[in-house]
Amino acid sequence: MTGFPITLAAPREHHGPLPDAVDVTVIGGGIIGLMAAWALARESQRVLLCEKGRMAGEQSGRNWGWVRQQGRDLAELPMMIDALRLWRDLPPGLRQAAGFRQTGITYLARTEAQLAAYQRWLDGARPHGVDTVLLSRRQTETMLPNAAGWIGALHTPSDGQAEPLAAVPALARAAAADGVTIREGCAVRGLHLSAGQVAGVETEAGPVRCTRVILAAGAWSALFLRAHGLSLPQLAVTSSVSVTGPLPELLPGAAADDRFAIRRRGDGGYTLTPWSRHEFHIGPAAFRHLLPFLPQFLADPASTRFRMAAPKGFPDAWRTPRRWRLSSATPFETCRILDPQPDRRALDGIRRCFADAFPDIGLPPIGRTWAGMIDVTPDSLPVIDHAPIPGLIVATGMSGHGFGIGPGVAGPLADLAMGRAPRHDLSAFRWGRFGRFRQRPSTAI
Ligand SMILES: Cc1cc2nc3c(=O)[nH]c(=O)nc-3n(C[C@H](O)[C@H](O)[C@H](O)COP(=O)(O)OP(=O)(O)OC[C@H]3O[C@@H](n4cnc5c(N)ncnc54)[C@H](O)[C@@H]3O)c2cc1C
After folding, report:
1. Between β-strands 254-256 and 105-109, what pairing exists: parallel, antiparallel or unpaired?
2. Strand blocks (E) in 148-259
3. Residue closest by Cα to atom 31 of ligand 1
4. Pairing of strands 152-156, 304-307
């Protein structure tokens, strides 16, 4: 166990008997599944959301809490702009409980090449109406007077942050009050099909009839799909997080350079993390999907530390079953909450970088540390589409930036589940888009 506070020791907040039948079952109690379930309940759909562990026990509780338009792939911007509006328009009590505030996000450049990349992104994003600006060295020094080493910055004042540990549980309570049936400790083992179409799900607590399923299972989605004969090139990397004790205010929002990222939390401490350092455990899926992922690994080989095998029970561990019977326990019940070990070396390293950048503060005191497994696709964009099984919709592969956009993905998912034309162009997120070697070039920075 790591220092992550949501554990199985916590009593289940959402429990009770299962309905016999619903309109839509959502698999996964992260931000994506939850917001989709809530959107559908608001359209008078009967919705069941099943979470194998605890709400926000995986990525949606472990992330940095950034809610950003800045630096995103341009294909995601329309959904992200919706998401920001939805976060902002939460009822005041709920917005406060989720810790949402628009305090701005800043990328700090140490080289001219980084500034040029910021400018390129800004040129592409401006037609979407973002309020992002490029800051000069002097403006950057004014923003961060006691810091060292940055020659300019990209800054989006309307970007925001929320407290991941609080946000999803608070939103889940609101969704349950609006009619979503949420069940924690309730893994979905597989789909029931009738004439090739979704006819229901088998959960560990029994079957539930439904004709539509939204799979939002984060790092587990590819394993779930594979058991139904569907191949999705999705892998997972481990990313580590540390939490400092209270520190003086350096800047109100969140910021990062090419070494570390910080966000001032509501409690006065900072979430301090490596900007782009991951561990990757090599398992069978890594071999199966090597070719589509190769360009991504080769583009930035220094950011990934390769490990030989994932811990027992993890989605792509060598001994994790790939097929199972619906009548007995599945891998989803063996590992209720993915809780990887943080990379202490990386966390120690960025603590020193932080001290170099903010010499008045020096080495920050560290409280908790944890890690999360980020589900990634070959082009770092999610899949938001119908799957080849009629009735099954997939919303996964958020690739390290699904928390902020979560509320904005819910509308298009509801459109798909209701059989309507989606409100945004989802072609960049379609199922089956991945080429063998070459992917669509990313416009994210
Ligand atoms: C360290 C870290 C930092 C990040 N920082 C940011 C950030 O600052 N901003 C941002 O926007 N994004 C960030 N992300 C990414 C973001 O957290 C994810 O993209 C997002 O939370 C994904 O949400 P999700 O609902 O798809 O998946 P998850 O939150 O992982 O939820 C999936 C859920 O499905 C459940 N599940 C799986 N299989 C089954 C099954 N068969 N039955 C029932 N339940 C099942 C799992 O238990 C899990 O709870 C970060 C991620 C990490 C790990």
Report:
1. parallel
2. 152-156, 160-161, 181-184, 188-194, 197-203, 206-209, 212-215, 235-244, 254-256
3. 30
4. unpaired
Q: What tokens appear for 173 in the block?
A: 């309570």
Query: Using a 6 Å cutoff on CB, does residue 269 contact ligand 1?
Result: no
Ligand 1 pocket, residue 281 CB under 6 Å: no
User: Please, are residues 31 and 60 in contact by the beta-carbon 8 Å criterion?
Assistant: yes
Which burial class, exposed, middle or buried, applies to 380 when counting CB atoms under 10 A from its CB (0-12, 13-18, 19+)?
Answer: middle
The gap from C-alpha 440 to its chain's centroid, in whole angstroms, comes to 21
Strand order in the sheet with 47-51: 181-184, 47-51, 24-27, 212-215, 392-396, 383-386
What pLDDT score does 207 carry?
A: 98
Q: What is the pLDDT of residue 2?
A: 86
| Residues sharing a CB contact under 8 Å with residue 374, sequence separation 6 or more, in sequence order | 59, 219, 236, 237, 238, 239, 278, 399, 400
Closest CA to 29 of 70, 7, 58: 58
**What pTM was computed for the model?**
0.97
DSSP 3-state of 199: strand
Return the residue matching tokens 């399923």: 213
Mean pLDDT per block of 10 residues along the chain (445 residues) reads: 91 96 98 98 98 98 98 98 98 98 97 97 97 96 86 97 98 98 98 98 98 98 98 96 94 91 94 93 93 88 87 94 96 97 95 92 95 96 98 98 98 98 97 83 91
Q: Give DSSP secondary structure letters for 354-420.
A: HHHH-TTT-SPPEEEEEEEEEEE-TTS--EEEE-SSTTEEEEE--TT-HHHHHHHHHHHHHHHHTTP
DSSP 8-state class, residue 301: G
Residue 98: the pLDDT is 98
- Cβ 54 vs Cβ 6: under 8 Å: yes
* pLDDT at residue 42 in the model: 98
Of 403, 405, 413, 429, the one to substitute when testing ligand 1's pocket (max ligand atoms within 8 A of C-beta) is 403
pLDDT at 252: 75
The answer, yes or no, to whether any atom of ligand 1 lies below 6 A from the CB of 28, is yes
Distance CA 329, CA 149 (A): 54
Q: Which two tokens stand for residue 11?
A: 């009593």
C-alpha torsion angle, residues 241, 247, 248, 251 (rounded to 10): 10
The 10 Å Cβ neighbour count of residue 302 is: 7
Q: What b/e string do you get for 332-346 counting C-beta neighbours within 10 Å, with b at 16 or more?
A: bbebbbbbbebbeeb
- Residue 156 Cα to ligand 1 middle (Å): 24
